[in-house]
Amino acid sequence: MKRFALLALGITLATLTVPAQATGFSCVGAEKLEDDVFSIPFPRGSAKLPEAARSPLAAAIEAALAEPGRNICILGHAGQEGGATTSIQLAAQRARAVTNTLADRGIAAERLRSEARSAQFSPTVRAAEPPSRTVTIVLMPAQ
């Protein structure tokens, strides 16, 4: 965890604790990949991992542990579940919940990058409706 102080006009407003996140790789293009992609469903308005997440999450963890040289992008999505700001916050909370679970299951934090995505960045452009209320786990190609 890193601590950052917010400054406005030279006055400290608050101290936030944010999780450390790998910066050595990018998730640009992750939504276009088709192999080693796992979709984690969420109930409307919730960032709590549901029972339905168990199987795809286990498969993603197994694949990630089998290939420790590959980085992992965790892309949170939220449909119209409130305003734009609320939706992007919910997408970020979902992605963070999945990221924390992966880290708790032994995947090194430096391999994980969590991002919130809006609907136009959906991983399946060919689908009639963009995925909402999901988190997409993408094992990136080995470098």
List the helices and strands and how they pair.
Elements: E1 2-8, E2 11-18, E3 37-41, H1 54-66, E4 72-77, H2 84-104, E5 112-117, E6 134-139
Parallel strand pairs: 4-5
Antiparallel strand pairs: 1-2, 3-6, 4-6
Short description:
By secondary structure, the protein is an alpha+beta fold. 24% of the residues lie in helices and 27% in strands. The chain is globular, with a radius of gyration of 16 Å.
Polypeptide structure, described:
The structure is a single chain. With 143 residues, the chain is of the alpha+beta class. 24% of the residues lie in helices and 27% in strands. It contains 2 helices and 6 strands. The protein has helices at residues 54-66, 84-104; strands spanning 2-8, 11-18, 37-41, 72-77, 112-117, 134-139. A 4-stranded mixed sheet has the order 3-6-4-5. α2 (84-104) links the parallel β4 (72-77) and β5 (112-117). Residues 1-22 and 120-130 have low confidence and may be disordered.
Regarding quaternary structure, how should these chains be classified? Answer: single chain
Gyration radius (Cα, Å) is: 16 Å
Count up the helices. Answer: 2
Termini separation comes to 27 Å
Shape: globular
What's the total count of β strands?
6
Mean pLDDT: 78
Order of strands across the biggest sheet?
Answer: 3-6-4-5
The helix/strand class is: alpha+beta
Sheet with the most strands, sense and barrel status: 4 strands, mixed
Estimate the strand proportion. Answer: 25-35%
Given as residue ranges, the uncertain stretches (5+ residues, pLDDT < 50) are 1-22, 120-130
